[in-house]
Amino acid sequence: MGNKSKLFKALADKNRLRILKMLEVRPLCVCEIREILNLANSTVSQHLAILRKSGFIYEIKDNKWVNYYLNKRSTDDVVYALLMIIQSKSFDDDVYRKDAEQVHLVDRNILCRL
After folding, report:
1. Angle at 109 between CA 57 and CA 37, to 5 degrees
2. Is CATH 1.10.10.10 what the domain over 2-106 is classified as, yes or no?
3. Model's pTM, two decimal places?
């Protein structure tokens, strides 16, 4: 039961829910998520770490970026079911719609200049 309660704790933060909804649109890097949420890189990284440890997302390194993806192929039935609930249309509201619009506009090549 302890592991399952961690899943719900991971979903208890609105910013983490926003991240999951943004990742429905496309994979994102930290700087893109930071730009949309208007949070510090370290805060975004903490949220991503919690979501990753809970199994909701995974990451793939691509050259200078780390891309974050929804874990739609989770072998954990509870993680999978929760992701399906989060992706349902009944979960939509204006904040998530605005975030989705921003996902289409952010450009890591501009934001993440190294």
Report:
1. 50
2. yes
3. 0.91
